[in-house]
Design brief:
This protein is mostly helical. It has a single domain (5-119), classed as 23S rRNA-intervening sequence (de novo design (two linked rop proteins), Up-down Bundle). 74% of the residues lie in helices and 0% in strands. The protein contains four helices and no strands. The chain has helices at 9-25, 33-54, 59-85, 91-119. The protein is elongated. The two termini are 12 Å apart.
Length: 129
């Protein structure tokens, strides 16, 4: 079920989000290394899970990895709320990153729905995405 993951739109959105969040980590207080590490782990898992999912042999397994990626996006959404509430980031930065996270989540939700609907067809082909 091989597919060039770099051609999947949600991968590029997730990759860009990961890069942006790494830059955000530079703004966080250095003593908050646990928060920084958690954000980095969660944001890296977004494009990594999409890429890994494309190497799986079954549609069900591919969907599972897409759902892991979506879950990591939700984790980042919650982490940003915590960062804002603890005053690690200001309202402007929160809104900026929250919009990017929301865009990824909406895009990923639509992609998962599209793949899920095609799972029930016999001639499912990952290359159609």
């Amino acid at each position: 079920m091989f597919r060039d993951y770099k051609k999947i739109y949600v991968w590029s959105v997730g990759h860009e989000l990961c890069i942006d969040l790494y830059k955000l980590c530079e703004l966080l207080p250095k003593e908050e290394h646990n928060m920084i590490n958690q954000i980095k782990r969660a944001c890296v898992s977004i494009p990594i899970n999409i890429a890994e999912g494309t190497s799986r042999k079954t549609k069900k397994s591919f969907l599972q990895f897409l759902e892991y990626s979506y879950g990591s996006g939700k984790e980042i959404e919650a982490l940003m709320l915590i960062c804002k509430d603890l005053k690690f980031i200001n309202e402007i930065n929160f809104e900026f990153y929250n919009k990017k996270i929301d865009y990824f989540l909406r895009s990923m939700f639509k992609f998962i729905k599209s793949v899920n609907e095609k799972v029930f067809y016999k001639n499912f082909n990952l290359n159609q995405f």
